[in-house]
Amino acid sequence: MKAKPSAWAVHGVLILAAILSIFPLFWMTTTAFTPNDLVLRKAFRFWPDDPSLANFRAAFTSYPVGMWLWNSILIATAVTLGKLVIAVPAGFAFAHLRFRGREAAFWTIVATMTFPTVIGIVPLYVGISKLGWFDSRAGVIVPSIAYIGFYVFFMRQTFRTLPGEMFEAARIDNAGPFRQLIQIGLPNVLPAMASLSVISFMGAWNIYLWALLVLDSPEKRTLAVGLKAFTSIDDHEPLWGPMMAVALLSCLPVMILFAFAQRFVMAAFTGRVGE
Description:
Blueprint: H1 5-32, H2 54-62, H3 65-96, H4 102-111, H5 121-131, H6 137-146, H7 149-160, H8 164-172, H9 177-188, H10 190-205, H11 209-214, H12 223-226, H13 240-269
Helix pairs in contact: 1-13, 2-13, 3-6, 3-7, 3-9, 3-10, 4-7, 10-13
């Protein structure tokens, strides 16, 4: 069967969009392996004539890039675990437990999604300063965990797809809420948890504005914040080579994570939570 012209047009648009999306990543990779003094002197090539790791060595010797990488991993992991620890039990409770004020509490949490993050910057900054969390990882981790409306909503909707009869039968067998969650709920929502883990990790990995305000010491910065150091070196031109090398390092963890968790993410967002 011949493809319709409309199908060819759709595929053409999708291919063009894919090329436009991949090209910046490809250019970043090429620049990362091109000696810094040749980045702006030669015309663009698909791959440098003499690929070099000089930009990576320059980045690691000039700045604590290794510490920035560790800080990013630690913060993103802590934020992801914190959100899951709160969102999964909360989603289960809002979906299958009966208690006074359940709907009001749920919609109050969901309503926080409508408030721009920028609105809370000033009170949050004052709060962490009084708590002594300024220039500390806790000052980035705890407020990031607090923005949890979407995660609670997603887990509640996921748990609602599970038959209520399973939990009713467990209650008849004197299983408490915690046992119902661990033995019945969790095994059936692993794809949803995996997808939220990826989303949360990527979001926390790319935190910039809040981390820039809170983390003052150079050794406590994240990769996203540390990249700014390469943009202005004593009023000289940005170090494009080392900057792209660090940018490439910052992309690799989330790309690898998504590659491994892609099956779970697709299953969660297509409704196949039990697979």
